[in-house]
Amino acid sequence: MKKVRNSAKGEYAHARASELFHVDFHEFIQKEANHTAYELASEFGLTLQDVRKLKKQLSRS
């Protein structure tokens, strides 16, 4: 079994990946069903393009 090395760079990359667009994904998913893309963008402080990217990313997972 390989040992996983921890480094400051790895920790930073992992933290950044989980904070994509600085949005709480659970809250985004809950509101996505009831709000338009424009409302989601203004609610989370994103652009419409960012909302589309998030929706696309969530549909892939």
- DSSP summary: helix tally: 4
Q: How would you describe the shape? A: elongated
How confident is the prediction overall: mean pLDDT? 76
- Structural class assignment: mainly alpha
How much of the residues is beta strand, in percent?
under 5%
Low-confidence stretches: none
N/C terminus separation = 28 Å
The total count of strands amounts to 0
Could you tell me the radius of gyration in angstroms?
A: 15 Å
Q: What fraction, in percent, of the residue positions are helical?
A: 55-70%
User: Which series of helices and strands comes N to C?
Assistant: HHHH
Largest sheet: none
- Looking at how many chains there are and whether they match, the oligomeric state comes to single chain
Molecular structure report:
The chain has 61 residues and is an all-alpha fold. The chain has a domain of 38 residues. Helices cover 66% and strands 0% of the residues. It has four helices and no strands. Helix 3 packs across helix 4. The protein starts with 7 loop residues before the first helix and ends with a helix. The model has no long low-confidence stretch (mean pLDDT 76).
